[in-house]
Amino acid sequence: MGNTATNSIESMSKNLQNVKCDFPILQKTFHGKRLTYLDSAASTQKPNAVIDCISNFLKNDYANIHRGVYALSQRSTERYEKARRDVAQFIHAKTPKEIVFLRGTTEGINLIANTFGRARVGQGDEVLISSMEHHSNIVPWQLLCLEKKAQLKTIPMFKDGSLDLSKIESLISSKTKLISIVHVSNALGTINPIKDIVEIGKKHDIPVIVDGAQSAAHLEVNVQELGCDFFIFSGHKVYGPTGIGALYGRYELLKEMPPYQGGGEMIESVSFEKSTFKLPPDRFEAGTPDIMGAVGLSAAIEYISEIGFDTIGKHEATLLKYAHKQLQQIKGLEIIGTALSKSGVISFVLDGIHPHDIATILDQDGIAVRAGHHCAQPVMDYFGVPATTRASIGIYNNEEDIDALVSALHHVQEIFK
Amino acid sequence: MNPEMKALYQEMILDHYKKPRNFHALNNQTHEAKGHNPLCGDRVTVYLVLDGNTVKDIGFQGTGCAISTASASMMTDFIKGKTIDEIEHLFSAFHDLVTLEKPLANQDKLGKLKVFEGVREFPMRVKCATLSWHTLKAALNEKDQPTSTE
Fold first, then answer.
1. A309 CB within 8 Å of a chain B CB
2. Can you tell me the distance from the alpha carbon of A392 to that of A189, in angstroms, rounded to the nearest whole number?
3. Of A91, A159, A195, A293, which cross-links A244 as Cys (Cβ 3.0–4.6 Å)?
4. Residue B66 distance to chain A (closest CA, Å)
């Protein structure tokens, strides 16, 4: 079982030059042009290792998990629980018991808001987030604050898209019950200093939740080193399948949290009078989970771990620098988000040309970028733009892709000249 | 440039994008509505002076892409002097133009607006082309409602 996945990892060159070959979709053409995929911040493409692993799992090892007494169910259960161990190792959790599988980062934040948040935040209390959050780290807290008559506060940022940490202390009071903060901004690429923020949180006894949707594929995450209380990421942004994500929570906290959803598999015993619940992580996994998603995520983790974050980090940093340099040479182009500590997200505006027109024309050249507010409308408001065009990079991108983008942007300017 | 691109970004569309006509509020408007495409953040406000059933004056303001701005600009030029009934027909003809595969008989009266037929090759952009039309309709309905309650 899972042999193909292992084989394709073994046959994969450690050299990132050949990584493109691991992704069958990157060999396709659109409008007669080879696909230049620059939308990894929205979702990453899938390597053969993941595609084959899921396919083999479904062919050979799949059954519902946990309840079956038969061999196949045990085998499937083992794969699912191995995925949990792989995730724990991937983000350096103390134990796999600290990993809850769910649909993705959005569901993770909603879970925390609805369980931990609801128990902790009361009337007149405050929740602190940053001014560069994705809607998924704003709206769940707004809903909670509305319900509890609490207040949502935001840490401001500078014009380069980095957080103004000097303001945090003045925003914190005895009413602050939670800090929820994005690790890497999906709209700006800024890498936030999570350790510093956690330190401030610890000083005031405020738990810190980290939205890791944009970081897990690009930086080595060590939750123990970061010191955060919760960390959430999505499978489909780390070269794995959609529909699966993982939530890390310190076990002491998870243990005290009430269930999120009720159903099968999360209970110890049920009667019509009363039900008792299992310990975490099972308590938070009601119903049949996304078994093949977890197995696919496990293959994705294996795939990127094989390449290693040293290689990934160096490659993406070099490419980001190259992209900045090339793009800045385009007349009338302004990059939104130029923090010193930055991941491979390049948001930009082009004088007099709307991002939607840019994205449509780029698409004709086989280039996939995103245009819009990137689910971060407050960020757009702050920079005074209705939308930006966003190119975001993954392990498979190279200088050729950036050159294709630059040349297509000249093409856009020709049309609009 | 491939044929689809050429058809989408025609000279006339680019010209109306760069120099939108009737791009202002009105002092004496009788109707007004705001339109918003949450998908891309495009915003438009349409102002109208209605004299009986006829559009006497029209203006618009907002931010948007080339397709949505040019569409609003050309729409305002085109419907000045038209009656509400005529506008209803134009709206549905324009909608057909940008969404349907086969040109229909009702397309003739669209005149210059036919430059937008290239949009139908780009389903993601249909909302850009129709935002101002939907907003115009909302502005007109604003009048209808008080009328019907009276």
1. no
2. 9
3. A293
4. 7
Q: What is the pLDDT of residue A9?
A: 41
State the pLDDT at residue A145.
98
Question: SS3 sequence, A313-332?
Answer: HHHHHHHHHHHHHHHHCCCC
B138 at A interface, C-beta within 8 A: no
Report the relative pairing of strands A176-182 and A126-130 from DSSP bridges.
Answer: parallel
**Helix, strand, coil fractions of chain A, as percent rounded to 5:** 45, 20, 35
Q: Domains for chain B: give ranges and CATH numbers.
A: 3-144 (3.90.1010.10)
Distance CA B84, CA B30 (A): 14
pLDDT 10s digits, B17-57: 999 999 999 999 999 999 998 777 789 999 999 999 999 99
Mutate to test the interface with A, among B11, B36, B65 (most CBs of A within 10 A): B65
Which pLDDT tens digit goes with each residue over A356-403?
Answer: 999 999 999 999 999 988 999 899 999 999 899 999 999 999 999 999
Residue A348: Cβ within 10 Å count? 23
Residue ranges and CATH numbers for the domains of chain A are 3-46+309-416 (3.90.1150.10), 54-305 (3.40.640.10)
Query: How distant is the Cα of B11 from the closest Cα of chain A, in angstroms?
Result: 9
- Angle at CA of residue A53, ends A305 and A290, nearest 5°: 95
pLDDT in tens, A150-174: 999 999 999 999 999 999 999 999 9
- Cα–Cα distance for residue pair A245/A339, rounded to 1 Å: 28
A377 touches chain B (CB under 8 A): yes
Q: CA-CA distances (angstroms) from residue A115 to A77, A181, A205, A229, A283? A: 27, 18, 19, 14, 12
Does the beta carbon of B1 lie under 8 angstroms from any beta carbon of chain A?
yes
pTM over 0.90: yes
Q: A376 contacts in B (CB within 8 Å)?
A: none
**Scanning every residue of chain B, which has its alpha carbon at the shortest distance from the alpha carbon of A32?**
B2
A366 touches chain B (CB under 8 A): no
